[in-house]
Design a protein that fits this description.
Elements: H1 2-6, H2 13-19, E1 22-26, H3 30-33, H4 37-41, E2 58-63, E3 75-78, H5 84-95, H6 102-106, H7 112-124, E4 127-132, H8 134-137, H9 143-156, E5 161-166, H10 173-184, E6 190-191, E7 198-199, H11 206-212, E8 218-221, H12 231-239, E9 242-245, H13 251-255, E10 258-260, E11 271-274, E12 280-283, H14 294-306, H15 309-316, H16 320-323
Parallel strand pairs: 1-2, 1-4, 2-3, 4-5, 8-9, 9-10
Antiparallel strand pairs: 6-7, 11-12
Helix pairs in contact: 5-7, 5-9, 11-12
Length: about 325
């Protein structure tokens, strides 16, 4: 939704490693959450155009508290919780040379001088990248915060090369977005009940459907909504026939009616995973598993449904195609 509102200027992690001399981590702590990110792509990595590695880079961390990532940073801006949008909007104003109110800026926990210094450093960079995490995306403002930082990166390209990239919270979350985009043209919140994809966040989003009680069955593949969703949504999952496909026991599988154990992708099952920069990586499993893959289970469910069109029509009142 943020990319739809503000556009998105991005690149690959290889370009970050070889070119980025100015790095911002906003609401993200990769030292704990993405432990090899710092060593492979940013702080500790020597690049083709950055032969001295750390000495050629400036690292800025923006967060509400000190973290392991802020310790080695050149600049640390500690802002007040829930003030990300205000700080980003002020930065956009300073980038364009617009006046700002120092008293309003002070309410964010930083000063105009600190933000002006950051803007000056950004403009002097040859290649800048802003990584933002759930500390930005899951606080007050949510996708509007993401839109603000994506727009800031876009506007910085009037002065130098700048990109923005989200630090996704779980493995292959990017893959789900990418696959849905190239198959349906939409990233999420998609309804197929009419036989074609319809997109409407807030109406067709998973949490909204569960909380409203519009769902009477659920199939969960490789996810654990029971650990992250609001309690009304979790209670709804517990009260309806829920089927979980997962290689391990999770909060969701404990409340599910059926838990099908599957092979672990990348370890005992082949597949494709998308990196946070949307680069697909082929997974070649080193081990064998007695359990079926997610793809095999879904295919067998689809075949079983296709063999019973009369039963589906009698029980749902809709066509088997729409149900499938």
């Amino acid at each position: 939704m943020a990319a739809q509102l503000g556009g998105k200027v991005s690149c690959t992690l290889g370009e970050v490693k070889n070119r980025a001399d100015f790095i911002v981590y906003w609401g993200s702590n990769p030292a704990d959450c993405h432990p090899r990110h710092l060593s492979r792509y940013t702080i500790a990595q020597k690049g083709r155009f950055l032969p001295r590695g750390r000495k050629d880079r400036t690292v800025v961390v923006v967060d509400v508290r000190e973290t392991k990532t802020s310790n080695p940073a050149d600049v640390f801006l500690q802002i007040r919780p829930g003030k990300d949008f205000e700080v980003l909007t002020t930065l956009r104003a300073l980038v364009k040379g617009q006046p700002v109110n120092p008293q309003l800026v002070a309410e964010t926990g930083v000063t105009v001088e600190q933000l002006q210094d950051l803007v000056d450093r950004m403009k002097r960079a040859r290649f800048g990248v802003m990584f933002f995490g759930m500390g930005l995306t899951m606080t007050r403002g949510k996708h509007m915060n993401s839109m603000a930082i994506l727009t800031l990166a876009t506007e910085m390209n009037a002065f130098t090369k700048f990109v923005a990239m989200p630090m996704r919270g779980h493995g292959n979350v990017t893959g789900a977005d990418v696959v849905m985009r190239w198959t349906t043209s939409y990233p999420f919140a998609i309804n197929f009940s009419r036989g074609y994809p319809r997109y409407n966040p807030g109406e067709f989003s998973t949490v909204d459907l569960l909380v409203r009680g519009d769902v009477d069955a659920a199939l969960v593949l490789g996810a654990d909504p029971g650990a992250t969703m609001p309690m009304p949504a979790i209670n709804r999952l517990a009260g309806i026939p829920t089927i979980v496909l997962d290689p391990k026991v999770t909060h969701t599988s404990r409340l599910a009616r059926v838990h099908i154990t599957t092979a672990t992708t990348g370890i005992s099952a082949p597949g494709t995973s998308y990196r946070m920069d949307e680069v697909p990586l082929t997974l070649r499993p080193p081990l064998r598993s007695p359990y079926p893959t997610d793809e095999e289970v879904v295919r067998r469910i689809h075949q079983a449904v296709a063999r019973k069109p009369d039963w589906l029509t009698a029980h749902s009142g809709t066509s088997p195609i729409a149900q499938a």
